[in-house]
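Annex B. Sample input.
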Amino acid sequence: MAHEHNHEIHTSLAFDEKMVKLLEYWIGHNDDHAASYRNWSEKTKEKDMNDVGLLLEDAVDMTELISNKFKKALELIKNR
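Annex B, continued. Sample output.
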């Protein structure tokens, strides 16, 4: 019996959908981490630990850079 449809198209769509879900999750997860780092940065500054606070602010910036990469990847997938 002939099998007339292409499984590769379905697999590709499922993969794209999975990537969208993963990227959305990673963005939210990173945003949660950035908020926590920011919160602890403020707390360390209140305890006169400015050097620690500045390092945590750097971690916020780095985490936001990663989220931005994920957002760009998500946009590319959605615009395919």
